[in-house]
Amino acid sequence: MAHTCRGTISLHGALIHTVDSCTFVISNGGTQTFHIKAANEVERQSWVTALELAKAKAIRAMESDEEEEDNTANTIPSEELNLVVRELTVRLENLKTCYDLITKHGAALQRALSELETGDDLANKTKIVSERATLFRISSNAMINACSDYLQTAQTQGHKWSKMLQHERDQKLHLEEMVEQLARQHSHLEQAATRHRPTVKVNISITVLLHCTQMTKDNMLN
Fold this sequence. Notes:
- InterPro entries: PH-like_dom_sf, PH_domain.
- Residues 1-56 form the PH domain.
- This is PH domain-containing protein.
- By secondary structure, the protein is mainly alpha-helical.
- It folds into 2 domains: 15-65, no CATH class; 77-191.
- It contains 3 helices and 3 strands; from the N terminus they run E-E-E-H-H-H.
- Strands 1-2-3 form a 3-stranded antiparallel sheet, with helices on one face.
- Strand 1 and strand 2 (23-27) form a beta hairpin.
- The longest helix is centred in the C-terminal third of the chain and has 100 residues, at 122-221.
- It is elongated.
- The N and C termini lie far apart (134 Å).
């Protein structure tokens, strides 16, 4: 039987919850609801885990897009640094999501192991423990992958940070050199002005004296 698309749903606003060991539901809290049945509990939990991680990424991507729209007009030198911080924050949130899943499945596995110690219905409880262990392994693998992504991102961005810091350092040195050069030029101008100032005063005094002398002579002749 051919399978067709039954519709789509936005993950960032979706509600994901399990119904039984094989069934889970995805809903947008309104008109769209999808009931999905897996082959077994392990497959169901694999889907739920993947959807929860995808939902967390969708929420952070939407928030990041909104921040970028708000800051479109503010193109500043630290924009690249802000982008790096946001990317690392997304990776860290993925780690937190995986940690929550590991905590959840670890507690379930611990309960199953405790029940196994009672000795009643050993075969069924052994199966439950095996399933819980599989779920814990899936969550652990997701955590390992998230850690690897975070490490890779941090290492990749480390080189960018180094270049950015070096650029800032070079700019600072360049500005310091410009300030020193301007200070030297200002000092030279002051010295030059000081040297020429007495000459100007003497010339002015001589001119005034000659003018006064000429006026005196003219008055005497008159």
